[in-house]
């Protein structure tokens, strides 16, 4: 270090002057992209579960997202654009999250020892979030790519054929567990980090938030599992007619 540098570091003059705002901005951006994705997934899993109400409900919802209310018959291009937009947020969120990964195996081992010794809940939550996030790198990318390249193949039969006959269900099972845990822990940490809904007694609020988030995680896991089981059942029954599209009763012109 030069003499000037030594003096500046001793006086703290340089560090004060150059304190970067970039890490704070990155932190904010990571929270913001996470919140957008969490909001997206809460609605996505609910819409997906429309299959529990019957094939016709899922068909109408698919048509809605294909913009049938704007152009006759709708177009899968709307889904492609939606998937592109979500992919941009997803990639940005993953890039920002990479800063938080243990950077070496030794660092990871040190972390595990600490977590075991302390049994600290927040440390365990951090571990769940980092491992589910790692899974999402792959599973989320596969799913988003499929949605972009096969946007025309979404519907009660097309989705069920993919899930059952194309054997996508193990991937969806892992994706469901990873994304629900990741979003649940992520939203909890966001609430604690930014002090949302702290109220007059932050400790009591924290316990209340934990209960609500645990309930939401359980709810989304259950509707996700039931929906997946329903797609598997439809796909199983439809395997002999693989590739055939769903039509409303009496409908002859529009494919699903
Ligand atoms: C705009 C982008 C997206 C679209 C259009 C979309 C669409 C779909 C569709 C149509 C299905 C039913 C299965 C199929 O047809 O293959 C599905 C299932 C699923 N998607 Fe997405 N998806 C999108 C983004 C995401 C993202 C970013 C995640 C999480 C990282 C996600 C998580 C899931 C999960 C967990 C399931 C299984 C749901 C269940 O178990 O019922 N999706 N998605």
Arithmetic mean of pLDDT: 88
- Please estimate the helix content: over 70%
| CATH homologous superfamily title | Fumarate reductase/succinate dehydrogenase, transmembrane subunit
In this structure, how is the largest beta sheet organized?
none
| CATH architectural name | Up-down Bundle
Proportion in β-strands:
under 5%
User: Radius of gyration in whole Å, from Cα?
Assistant: 23 Å
Number of strands: 0
Mind sketching the topology for me?
Layout: H1 3-11, H2 13-18, H3 22-48, H4 55-65, H5 77-97, H6 105-118, H7 121-149, H8 156-164, H9 169-194, H10 202-238
The structure holds protoporphyrin IX containing FE.
The site of protoporphyrin IX containing FE has 25 residues, from helix 3, helix 5, helix 7, helix 8 and helix 9.
What does this structure look like?
With 256 residues, the protein is an all-alpha fold. The protein has one domain (21-241): Fumarate reductase/succinate dehydrogenase, transmembrane subunit (3 helical TM bundles of succinate and fumarate reductases), CATH 1.20.1300.10. It is 74% helix and 0% strand. The protein is built from 10 helices and no strands. The chain is elongated, with a radius of gyration of 23 Å. The N and C termini lie far apart (69 Å). The structure holds protoporphyrin IX containing FE. Residues 41, 44-45, 48, 79, 82-83, 86, 90, 136, 140, 143-144, 147, 154, 159, 162-163, 172, 175-176, 179, 224, 227-228 line the site of protoporphyrin IX containing FE. Protoporphyrin IX containing FE (HEM) is lined by residues 41, 44-45, 48, 79, 82-83, 86, 90, 136, 140, 143-144, 147, 154, 159, 162-163, 172, 175-176, 179, 224, 227-228.
């Amino acid at each position: 270090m030069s003499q000037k540098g030594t003096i500046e570091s001793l006086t703290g003059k340089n560090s004060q002057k150059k304190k970067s705002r970039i890490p704070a901005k990155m932190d904010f951006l990571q929270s913001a992209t996470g919140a957008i994705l969490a909001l997206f997934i809460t609605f996505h899993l609910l819409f997906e579960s429309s299959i529990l109400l019957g094939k016709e409900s899922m068909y109408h919802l698919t048509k809605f997202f294909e913009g049938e209310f704007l152009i006759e018959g709708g177009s899968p291009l709307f889904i492609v654009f939606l998937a592109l937009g979500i992919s941009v947020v997803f990639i940005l969120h993953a890039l920002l999250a990479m800063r938080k990964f243990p950077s070496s195996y030794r660092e990871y081992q040190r972390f595990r020892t600490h977590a075991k010794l302390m049994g600290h809940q927040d440390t365990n939550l951090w571990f769940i979030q980092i491992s589910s996030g790692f899974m999402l790198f792959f599973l989320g990318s596969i799913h988003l790519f499929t949605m972009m390249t096969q946007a025309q193949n979404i519907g009660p039969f097309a989705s069920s054929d993919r899930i059952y006959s194309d054997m996508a269900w193990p991937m969806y099972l892992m994706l469901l567990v990873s994304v629900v845990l990741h979003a649940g822990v992520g939203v909890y940490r966001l609430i604690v980090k930014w002090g949302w809904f702290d109220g007059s007694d932050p400790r009591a609020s924290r316990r209340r938030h934990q209960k609500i988030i645990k309930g939401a995680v359980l709810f989304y896991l259950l509707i996700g599992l039931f929906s997946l089981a329903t797609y598997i059942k439809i796909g199983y029954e439809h395997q002999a007619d693989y590739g055939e599209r769903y039509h409303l009763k009496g409908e002859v012109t529009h494919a699903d």
